[in-house]
Amino acid sequence: MFVDARQLPQDMEVDADICIIGAGAAGITMARALSGGNRRIAVFESGGFDFDVDTQNLYAGDVIGYSYTPIDRDRLRFLGGSTNHWQGSCRPFDAFDLDDWPIGLDVLEPYYRQAQQVCQLGPYSYDPQQWVDAEARPISASSADSLKSSLFQYSPPTRFGTVYRDELAAAGNLTVYLHANLVAIDTNEAASSVTGVEIACLTGRRFRARARHYVLATGGIENVRLLLNSNRVQKSGLGNGNDLVGRYFMDHVYVPKAATVLADVSSPEVRFYDHHLVRGHPIEGFFTASDELRRTKQMPPFYIGFRVPTTALAELGVDRLPAPIRGLLGEGVAQNIEYYYSRTTSSLQLPAKWLYEKMWRTPPGTFVTCYCSGPNPDPQSRVTLSNTVDVLGLRQTQLDWRLPSDFEQDMHRAHEQLAQLLGRSGVGRLRIESSATGYDPMQDVVNAHHHMGTTRMHDDPRYGVVDRDCRIHGIGNLFVAGSSVFPSYACDDPTMTIVALALRLSDHLKSLTS
Amino acid sequence: MSYTRRYLLTCLGYASGLGVGLRPAALAAAASAPDDAAAVLRLLLDDRARARALGASYRAHCPAESDPAVLTRLILAAVAPHGGGQRPLRRELLLPAFDRCVRDEFGAGSTVRLDGWILARTEARLCALCE
Question: Is this complex scored with an ipTM above 0.90?
Answer without folding.
Answer: no
